[in-house]
Amino acid sequence: MKKYTLLFILNSFIATLSFAQNLTLELDKVSDLRDEKKYTEALGILDSLIAMDSVSARLYFLRGSCYHYARQPKLSMESYQKTIEMDSLFKNAYFNLANGYERQNKMDSAEIFFRKYITLDSTDSDAYLRLGYTLRGQGKEDSVKYLYDKAYALDSTNLYAIYTLAQEYFYEEDYSKSQAFIAKGKALETDDISFYVLEGALESAVGNYDKVIKACEEAFEIDSTDFDLNKLYIESVMLKKTDPKKICKIDYQNKFVDYNNSNLKEVLAGITEEDYNQYLKRVKAGEILSLEDYLRFYLSQKHKKGFSPYFTASNPNIEKYWKEENFKELVKHDDEIFNTVPLKISELFKVCSAHFALGNITEFRKYYAVYFGILEGIIATGNGTEFESAYLVVSASDEYEVIYYMGLNSSSQALVHKDEHSYDILTTAYNDGEEKDVYFNIDIPMENLHASFTETDKKGKKKKKKRKNK
Questions:
Q1: Coiled-coil regions in this chain (predicted)?
Q2: Are residues 267 and 292 in the same domain?
Q3: In this structure, are residues 358 and 328 in contact, taking their beta carbons and an 8 Å threshold?
Q4: Phi and psi torsions of 292, nearest 5°
């Protein structure tokens, strides 16, 4: 009997050892399949393994990972929850659950699981950063900075911690500390574009546009296709050329020029069709103008023959290829946008977006500078909060481009005549639902419309000569 008992124990041991060896091989196979994005096959193997061992936390965790990469968040979260049921000390399951809740914008739940993770591993620098992000997402600012400092104290080479603190000090306008963290980040990771962008933003905030341009040019050697970097470069070249003493006040920190002053009428009166022709020649050549010049170019369109703010058709080629996402064909018609007066800002956006998607950075900069300059020029004419500070536009359709650019959505529009001026008031809202009325001065398009109707009436009133009978 003892002999059979020993034999049974030995067979059980061999079977257990064999299962463990096979399990290791199968899990390696699952990991390979996951890395190859063959999620269905990987999940099939995991389901069969769980059928044989339904209490293995490791199996549920790996299944959660596969579901995550297969973009099935609900099943992924359920698997991570099951992992914790099997092993309450399985720390990575807590981290991944926190990450999942953060993706769902459930910051309170994310906070709970990040805190649980930290109780199991108090040395993970990234966990403190992520907890800080979730607290900020809930408006709990009290301990956010402490958590960022804690993350840096745990790992002073953590690039995320360094960048986060550089950003924090930038927002606090403590530029010397921000610059110190930026310098450290650049020294640790010479190819990280984000530190160059932040450095450029810092120098821009204090009006050092030459330094911004230098930082951008250095970063272009690493990656000339980064959008934020190109935007910062274009903006800085533009603002470097903008003379705040010429006709207006300027707030360099917000990068908006305030044209809402007594000189505006003089500016408008002094613009001619020749200005339009000169500016058009320069922008078509790819020159980045000053913000003031982009505004003058925008306003000078009203003097161009054929100016029609209410009856301008879209370019059929650009519309067609944009819908088809055929950017190679679309950019063949890029120069055609200048044939439309006034320029359609939406078509400018499509052209520069197509060039960026194709990696045509020189052409992207050319068209994006016009797009950015015109919109910032419009925004520079006021603040849009009341009649007296309404944004000045040459076409009603430009109103919608402005509000989209500002991150707003329109729900209604009202035409108002006040003190011999015409205004559009757009009721808009941010994505969070907060409503905002935005005022636009539409004297230019209304004057053109009135002139068109007057000309039509004159033609209609001309008497026809009666034919005489022979």
A1: none
A2: yes
A3: yes
A4: -60, -40
**How many whole angstroms separate alpha carbon 204 and alpha carbon 182?**
15
**Residues 402 and 342 occupy one common structural domain:** yes
Closest to 369 in 3D by CA, of 286, 470, 263: 286
- 221 and 295 housed in the same domain: no
Report the 10 Å Cβ neighbour count for 365: 22
Q: Which two tokens stand for residue 265?
A: 């009428």
68 within a domain of the structure (yes/no): no
| Alpha-carbon Rg for the chain in angstroms | 31
Total residues found in the chain within this entry: 470
- Would you state the structure tokens that stand for residue 50, as one six-digit string? 């769980």
| 31: in domain | no
Kindly state the greatest CA–CA separation across the chain: 140
Q: Using CA atoms in the order 204, 209, 210, 214, what is the torsion angle rounded to 10 degrees?
A: 50
**Containing structural domain, residue 172:** 156-240
pTM: 0.77
Instruction: List the 391-392 sheet strands across, edge first.
Output: 391-392, 435-441, 421-429, 409-418
Judge if 309 and 333 occupy the same domain: yes
Percent of the chain residues topping a pLDDT of 90 = 63
For 443-461, write each residue's pLDDT tens digit. Answer: 899 988 877 665 555 555 5
